Amino acid sequence: MSTTLQPAPSTATELPPVAPPRGSLTWRTVRDALPASLRKLDPRRMWRVPVMFVVEVGAALTTVLAVVDPSVFAWVIAVWLWITVLFATLAEAVAESRGRAQASSLRATQRTTTARKVQGTADQLAYGSGLASLPTVEVASSQLHVGDLVVVTAGETIPGDGDVVEGVASVDESAITGESAPVIRESGGDRTAVTGGTTVLSDQIVVRITAEPGRTFVDRMIALVEGSERQKTPNEIALNVLLASLTIIFLLAVATLQPMAVYSHARQSLVVLVALLVCLIPTTIGALLSAIGIAGMDRLVQRNVLAMSGRAVEAAGDVDVLLLDKTGTITYGNRRASELLPAPGVEAGHLAEAAQLSSLADETPEGRSIVDLTQTAYGRPVLTDDALAGATLVPFSAATRMSGVDLPGRPDDGGAPQARRVRKGAASVVHQWVRSTGGEPTGGTAGHPAGHPLVGQAVDADVESVSAQGGTPLVVAEQIGDAPARLLGVVHLKDVVKEGLVERFAELRAMGIRTVMVTGDNKVTARVIADEAGVDDVLAEATPEDKLALIRREQKGGKLVAMAGDGTNDAPALAQADVGVAMSTGTTAAKEAGNMVDLDSDPTKLIEIVGIGKQLLITRGALTTFSIANDVAKYFAIIPAMFVLAFPQLHVLNVMHLHSPQSAITSAIVFNALVIVALIPLALRGVRYRAVSAVALLRRNLWIYGLGGLVAPFVGIKLIDLVVSLVPGLR
Ligand SMILES: Nc1ncnc2c1ncn2[C@@H]1O[C@H](COP(=O)(O)OP(=O)(O)OP(=O)(O)O)[C@@H](O)[C@H]1O
Ligand SMILES: [K+]
Ligand SMILES: [Mg+2]
Questions:
Q1: What does pTM read for this prediction?
Q2: Is 325 considered catalytic here?
Q3: What ipTM was estimated for this complex?
């Protein structure tokens, strides 16, 4: 197996076209979005947003009235009502336009390529090596099916989504992530997944296809960014119900206004009543609601995160607990063997040989690094595959936390006279294994036939010291024949804590979010790393079931839980979490279990995801506040002006001194429409968001958007009235 990566041959890769900056409303974006916004005027679509549907019906009605009984006033109102609806559909179309651009550049990666398919079955996987040398046939990538094995060599395009089952390679994923730095993909560990359409830069890998053509990751991504899969979230539905109820209330209010008006000899025309209704119902938020949701998804996509549901994005905004795994999340994740610590009375060479033997068929990066170390630092020749003839492999799993090999005795052909079993893994489980053979791992002699007095304590001390440095200790033990197993020593796996985590976790704490590190590693290592990284809590020696149980426990207590993970062992927990972010490098199981995928495979991005979720909720809240405050203010701004002729006493309330009832109502309608356009950039960009507590944010936003919403109509309507009053026919 090749573990050194050859330098990458240079390949020209095109980056996706740069979309206009978020939240900008240039002529170009408007022009591009115009056809889509006109299509969205279809009442069958509009119906889904009741507030805007009412406006559209009102626009149609006033148009008819203007035709039947033409007047400048009626036409102006009709036109501005249509503009109001159009601004709403425009907001949504502009929000979607980025996704459309991204989708078309993604489609470009979906060309059919030729794949070299291995003529064999997955059974040949048993030894985890030698697949690439099997005979292959060339087939079109569109003909590949789940379970097929394909060989991909430097310079070739990976023909479909899959898991690397053999080898290690550097891969250019820029076609999908826009990130030009190559990434490592390798078999066995938590970096196995590859995406169709990406290019192998160096070395050779064998990939097992995991998605049928047409159902690949890129297909899903296209559907997502285009918004065709977007469904209203529960929160959006609730808000829509609220807006619809307000609409009905105002509809009744306006309907009952007429009898009173007639009674007081101030009968209002139908056009005025429709205009008044539109002014009072929450059109601002009704028009922008969908754009806010799309923009939130889009902000995630810009950070290379794909959310499979809008619900997940919202949940991210309300998260209470964040679970992070240690290896690869808090640490860099390239855990490598750095040192062998033999037990007293054990030759270093003997420990090295046993460590190598038990790692030969271990396809995890840790396993490979052990083989490397025994060769480079301990000069062990590489054992040939022959050394494993007739052997039974015990593969590593997160549930057993141990791996190894059982070799048969081969006295007849000059091999070892007795059967031999070697194990390596977490200290506690290797201890258990030693006990199961009748050995005593902690006692003075630690099952050592030579009866060395200090083996148990010495190995324990080494485990402790490796852990105290934040390393992962693997204990190696061996059993010859039927004799009790004995400890041979410790392998030190080194990993480094990522930089800048302390600050990020502090930020989360300020937002009121608790961080918990969950790891399969031992308590001491876990504690050391947790302290260095600054997480709030730690769960060590966790099996996949423990992770799942922890999430369920938190959820029972009413908490929303987010988790980042990459391993197959994380999949159950990712599925259970309210927000499950799978690393794109991770295993297919993990990617299918979560409700978000991070293309950059950066678990600390959870922090940004939480920020984006919060920003989405805050933006929606702020604009709802603004919209309703605005409508209330409009009521007081225009009602006195409308009735001032009938009730001269109202003049006291007519603080705005609007020109005439007609100009008042026209100005209010124009203002109502312009507010929507004015707020499109904010809806797309999101309200500025800082890491402070939810209560402080709420208070601040109530002030800004509540008060702003109350004041704005008075200023805006007055200014527009000054202009409108100059128009003949509206005076
Ligand atoms: N290749 C291996 N062979 C034997 N034992 C291993 C191997 N890799 C890991 N272990 C042991 O199993 C334990 C759990 O594995 P692993 O670290 O993958 O768990 P995890 O739950 O994914 O936690 P994390 O990834 O956060 O560290 C390790 O701490 C180590 O003791
Ligand atoms: K309104
Ligand atoms: Mg892991």
A1: 0.77
A2: yes
A3: 0.92
